[in-house]
């Protein structure tokens, strides 16, 4: 699977069935040549005008399943904050 294919997949948390967004980047360990985490841009801050507030770095061990269209992850609720409501 290519990184460009991962970026087209939506990430969903199986803990609360919430959408986290789409894969924005991938973190690799260059010594081992392994993927260590996926990075999902967080919700926009101030109604999306001032960029992104934070990003979710989801370790590879927290990825439950990679499907054709989505990636299922298990992320603790404390790590995922609610987006700012406009």
Description:
- The chain has 86 residues and is mainly beta.
- The chain has a single domain (3-78), classed as PRC-barrel domain (SH3 type barrels), CATH 2.30.30.240.
- 5% of the residues lie in helices and 41% in strands.
- It contains one helix and seven strands; from the N terminus they run αβββββββ.
- It has one helix at residues 3-6; strands at residues 10-13, 18-22, 25-29, 34-41, 55-59, 63-66, 70-73.
- The strands form two sheets. The protein has a four-stranded mixed β-sheet, with no helix packed on it. A three-stranded antiparallel β-sheet has the order 3-4-5, with no helix packed on it.
Can you give me a brief rundown of this structure?
The chain has 86 residues and is mainly beta. 5% of the residues lie in helices and 41% in strands.
Itemize the secondary structure elements and their pairings.
Layout: H1 3-6, E1 10-13, E2 18-22, E3 25-29, E4 34-41, E5 55-59, E6 63-66, E7 70-73
| Contiguous uncertain segments of 5+ residues | 82-86
End-to-end separation: 37 Å
Please state the structural category: mainly beta
CATH class: Mainly Beta
Largest sheet, spatial ordering of strands: 2-1-7-6
Using the 3D structure, state the CATH architecture.
Answer: Roll
Number of helices: 1
Number of strands: 7
Mean pLDDT: 82
